[in-house]
C-alpha cells in the first residue's frame, strides 16, 4: 500500500514537472508518452521478447555464478587457501565486470556467451566472499557441540557450518544478483543482438526517448519484482527460522 | 597462562562427581581436555569411557527444531524418547528461540542423552537458569543418573548444587587449578539444594572454598 503511494507520488511529480517545464519530448518525455511506448512495444511483442532474452542470460549467468561462487567460497573455507582465495576475490571484485567484455568478445565472438561471461564475473566474487566469510564465522560453541556429538568433517560442514553461514550467504546471493543485473545491462548496452540493453541502444539511435525510458521502467520493475517476490520472502523465512527476527 | 597444574583426578565408572571451584579456575579447560576438545600440553589422560560435553550455553543449532537438534548425527525418530524424558515432547517442533532458557538447556540434555555417551561432562549447565528451573533440573538429572547409571562429571561454582548432586565433591583451587580437597557425600537420594543435610555439608565446605580462592 505504501509502495503504491510512493509510486503514485513519483509518477505524479514526474508528470507535474513535465507539465510545468514543457521540455522537448526528444529530451524528457512525460509518463503518458512512456506508457504509450510501453504499450506499443508490448503489443508488437518486441518488449516481451527482449525481456525474455535478457532474463534468460541473467538466469544462466547468475546460476553459473552461484555454482562457481559456492565452489570458490568452499575452497576458501579450507584454512591454508583462505588468504589467497579472499585476496583473489577482493581483487577481482574491484574490476567492474563490463571491463571483461572486450576479452569476452574476443574469446566467444559476438555471442550470448560473451554477455553471460560478463554476468558470471559480475556476480561470482561477492557470492564467493559471502560463502567464505560465513563459513569462517561459525560460532565456536556450535563447532564444539558438533565435535562432542561426534560429527565428522563432512557432517560438520554440511549440517553445521553451511546452515550457520546461510544468513551471510543469502546476503551475498542478493548482492550477487544486483551485480549480475547491472553487469547484464552494461554488457547489453555495449553489445547484444537482443535484449533490454539492445532496445535502449535502438531507441537512442532513433532518438526515441519514450522508448528508452520505457525500457528503464521495465528494468526497474524487474528489479523491484525480484526483491518483492524473491529476496524479501527468502529473508523473512531465514530471519524467522534462524531466530534473527527483531 | 597455565590453566591447570599438578592436577590428579580419577573418576569411577558410574560415579557422579562435582568439580567445585571459582569462576575462571580452569574447570572448563579441564572438561575440554576430558572431552577431547583440547589436548593437554603435558600430563597423562586415561579415559576408558566415551564422553560427551554439555555446555553452559545450550549450544543448539538455531535453525533446527528441538527434535532435529536432538537427532543431529542420529537416525530419524531417535529423539522422541529423550525429549519425553526431559518433559519436552510437546515442544519437539519448536525452534530454540521459541523456547525458554531452561527448556533449551533440557533440549541440550536430551541431545546429549540421545547420543548415549558412557559419560557426561557438564560445564555449569544450570548456571544461567533461575532457581526454580535449576531445582527442577537437579531432580531430573538425579533421576536420569539413577536410571541410566552414567558417569557424570559436573562442574559448578555453586556449593549447594555440588553437594546436592554429587557422590563426591572435589574442590579445586583458583588458576592454575589443583585439587584442594575432596568430600564424599553419602546422603540418600533424591536430594534437593534445600535439604538441611545438604545445607549443613555445604556450610562445612565453604571455608575450604574460601581458602581455595585465596590460595
How would you summarize the topology of this molecule?
The complex is a heterodimer of chains A (246) and B (215).
Chain A: H1 2-21, H2 31-43, H3 46-77, H4 79-93, H5 101-108, H6 112-136, H7 140-148, H8 153-190, H9 196-206, H10 209-241
Helix pairs in contact in A: 2-10, 3-4, 3-6, 3-8, 3-9, 4-6, 5-6, 6-8, 8-9, 8-10, 9-10
Chain B: E1 16-20, H1 27-34, E2 51-54, H2 66-70, H3 80-85, H4 101-114, E3 119-123, H5 131-148, E4 151-156, H6 159-165, E5 168-172, E6 179-184, H7 196-214
Parallel strand pairs in B: 1-4, 1-5, 2-3, 3-4
Antiparallel strand pairs in B: 5-6
Helix pairs in contact in B: 6-7
Number of helices of chain A: 10
Oligomer: heterodimer
Greatest interface (CB-CB under 8 A), with counts per chain: A-B, 19 and 21 residues
Give the % helix of chain B. 25-40%
Number of strands of chain B: 6
Largest beta sheet of chain B: what is the strand line-up? 2-3-4-1-5-6
**β-strand amount of chain B:** 5-15%
Distance between the termini of chain B: 17 Å
Tell me the CATH topology of chain A: MetI-like fold
Gyration radius of chain A, in Å: 22 Å
Computed Rg of chain B? 17 Å
Number of strands of chain A: 0
- Largest sheet of chain B at a glance? 6 strands, mixed
Q: Which structural class is indicated by helix and strand composition of chain A?
A: mainly alpha
Query: How would you characterize the largest beta sheet of chain A?
Result: none
How many domains of chain A, as an integer? 1
Distinctive features:
heterodimer; A: 246 residues; mainly alpha; 10 helices; 83% helix; 0% strand; B: 215 residues; alpha/beta; six-stranded mixed β-sheet; 7 helices; 6 strands
Describe this protein's structure:
The complex is a heterodimer of chains A (246) and B (215). Chain A is mainly alpha-helical. Chain A has a single domain (50-241), classed as MetI-like (MetI-like fold, Orthogonal Bundle), CATH 1.10.3720.10. Chain A has 10 helices and no strands. Chain A has helices at residues 2-21, 31-43, 46-77, 79-93, 101-108, 112-136, 140-148, 153-190, 196-206, 209-241. In chain A, helix 3 (46-77) runs antiparallel to helix 4, helix 3 crosses helix 9 (196-206) and helix 6 (112-136) packs antiparallel against helix 8. The longest helix of chain A is centred in the C-terminal third of the chain and has 38 residues, at 153-190. The radius of gyration of chain A is 22 Å and the shape is globular. Chain A starts with a helix and ends in a 5-residue tail after the last helix. The mean pLDDT of chain A is 93. Chain B is an alpha/beta fold and 215 residues long. Chain B has helices spanning 27-34, 66-70, 80-85, 101-114, 131-148, 159-165, 196-214; strands at 16-20, 51-54, 119-123, 151-156, 168-172, 179-184. A 6-stranded mixed sheet of chain B has the order 2-3-4-1-5-6, with helices on both faces. In chain B, a hairpin with a 6-residue loop joins strand 5 (168-172) and strand 6. In chain B, helix 6 packs across helix 7. Chain B is globular. The A-B interface holds A 141-142, 144-151, 155, 159-160, 163-164, 166, 241-243 and B 32, 35-37, 52-53, 55, 57, 59-64, 72-73, 95-97, 111, 115.
Amino acid at each position: 500500500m505504501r509502495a503504491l503511494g510512493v509510486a503514485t507520488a513519483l509518477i505524479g511529480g514526474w508528470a507535474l514537472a513535465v507539465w510545468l517545464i514543457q521540455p522537448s519530448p526528444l529530451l524528457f518525455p512525460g509518463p503518458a508518452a512512456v506508457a504509450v511506448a510501453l504499450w506499443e512495444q508490448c503489443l508488437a511483442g518486441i518488449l516481451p521478447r527482449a525481456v525474455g532474452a535478457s532474463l534468460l542470460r541473467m538466469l544462466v549467468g547468475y546460476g553459473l555464478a552461484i555454482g562457481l561462487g559456492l565452489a570458490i567460497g568452499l575452497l576458501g573455507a579450507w584454512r591454508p587457501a583462505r588468504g589467497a582465495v579472499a585476496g583473489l576475490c577482493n581483487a577481482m571484485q574491484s574490476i567492474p565486470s563490463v571491463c571483461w567484455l572486450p576479452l569476452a568478445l574476443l574469446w566467444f565472438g559476438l555471442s550470448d556467451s560473451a554477455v553471460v561471461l560478463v554476468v558470471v564475473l559480475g556476480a561470482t566474487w561477492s557470492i564467493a566472499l559471502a560463502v567464505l566469510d560465513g563459513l569462517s564465522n561459525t560460532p565456536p560453541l556450535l563447532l564444539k557441540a558438533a565435535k562432542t556429538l561426534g560429527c565428522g568433517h563432512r557432517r560438520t560442514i554440511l549440517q553445521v557450518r553451511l546452515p550457520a553461514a546461510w544468513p551471510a550467504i543469502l546476503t551475498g546471493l542478493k548482492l550477487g544478483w544486483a551485480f549480475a543485473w547491472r553487469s547484464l545491462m552494461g554488457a547489453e548496452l555495449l553489445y547484444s543482438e537482443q535484449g533490454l540493453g539492445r532496445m535502449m541502444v535502438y531507441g537512442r539511435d532513433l532518438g526515441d526517448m519514450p522508448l528508452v525510458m520505457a525500457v528503464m521502467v521495465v528494468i526497474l520493475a524487474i528489479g523491484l519484482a525480484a526483491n518483492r517476490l524473491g529476496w524479501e520472502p527468502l529473508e523473512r523465512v531465514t530471519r524467522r527460522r534462524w531466530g534473527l527476527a527483531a | 597462562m597455565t590453566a591447570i597444574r599438578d592436577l590428579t583426578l580419577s573418576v569411577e565408572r558410574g560415579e557422579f562427581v562435582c568439580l567445585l571451584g571459582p569462576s575462571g579456575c580452569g574447570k572448563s579447560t579441564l572438561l575440554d581436555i576430558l572431552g577431547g576438545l583440547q589436548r593437554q600440553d603435558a600430563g597423562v589422560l586415561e579415559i576408558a569411557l566415551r564422553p560427551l560435553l554439555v555446555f553452559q550455553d545450550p549450544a543448539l543449532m538455531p535453525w533446527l527444531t528441538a527434535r532435529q537438534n536432538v537427532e543431529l548425527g542420529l537416525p530419524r525418530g531417535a529423539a522422541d524418547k529423550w525429549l519425553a524424558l526431559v518433559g519436552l515432547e510437546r515442544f519437539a517442533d519448536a525452534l530454540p528461540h521459541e523456547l525458554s532458557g531452561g527448556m533449551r538447556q533440557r533440549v541440550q540434555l536430551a541431545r546429549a542423552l540421545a547420543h548415549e555417551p558412557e559419560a557426561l561432562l557438564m560445564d555449569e549447565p544450570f548456571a544461567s537458569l533461575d532457581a526454580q528451573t535449576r531445582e527442577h533440573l537437579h531432580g531430573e538429572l538425579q533421576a536420569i543418573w539413577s536410571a541410566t547409571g552414567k558417569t557424570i562429571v559436573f562442574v559448578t561454582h555453586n556449593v549447594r548444587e555440588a553437594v546436592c548432586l554429587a557422590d563426591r565433591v572435589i574442590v579445586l583451587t583458583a588458576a592454575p587449578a589443583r585439587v584442594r580437597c575432596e568430600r564424599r557425600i553419602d546422603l540418600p537420594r533424591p536430594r534437593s539444594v534445600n535439604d538441611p543435610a545438604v545445607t549443613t555439608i555445604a556450610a562445612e565446605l565453604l571455608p575450604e572454598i574460601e581458602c581455595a580462592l585465596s590460595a
